[in-house]
Structure formats: structure tokens, C-alpha cells
Write a structure and sequence with these properties.
The protein has about 80 residues and is an all-alpha fold. It contains three helices and no strands. The protein is elongated, with a radius of gyration of 17 Å.
Length: about 80
């Protein structure tokens, strides 16, 4: 494995981890919300949606910026 392939693999891993953050938050919120009053899960989902907007923008910008680099690295193999 050369250095470029290793670096591309690290970027892919970082992008996948960033994408999984929202899923984990959602699962935890739903589990904790099941013990609370009616409507709590919906309220937490609204808060989660607005709170993760910054993370989504960062993830999308990072993915858009790195995609051409990853495509070049894969094509060179």
C-alpha cells in the first residue's frame, strides 16, 4: 500500500465517521425520549435537526472538496 492510497483511505474513514454522527445521535435521542412525555421525541428531533445543520454543512463541504482528490487517487491505481 503506497502513501497516497493510505491517505485516501483515511479520508474515506473520516467521511464515514462524520456521516454516522447524526445516526448515533438520533438513536440515543429516541431511546432516551421513550421514557419521557408524549411529543418529547419530536421535540428532540427538531433540536437535533437544527443542531446538526453546521455538521452537515461541514461534512458536505469536506466531501465536495475531497471527492476530486479521491477520484484521482483511485484512477491512478
Amino acid at each position: 500500500m503506497n502513501g497516497q492510497t493510505f491517505l485516501a483511505g483515511r479520508w474515506v474513514t473520516a467521511i464515514l465517521l462524520l456521516n454516522s454522527i447524526g445516526i448515533v445521535y438520533s438513536l440515543i435521542d429516541r431511546h432516551l425520549g421513550s421514557f419521557l412525555a408524549e411529543g418529547s421525541i419530536a421535540a428532540m428531533q427538531y433540536a437535533n435537526t437544527s443542531g446538526l445543520a453546521t455538521d452537515r454543512r461541514l461534512r458536505d463541504a469536506l466531501g465536495t472538496a475531497i471527492l476530486p482528490y479521491l477520484a484521482d487517487r483511485i484512477q491512478c491505481q
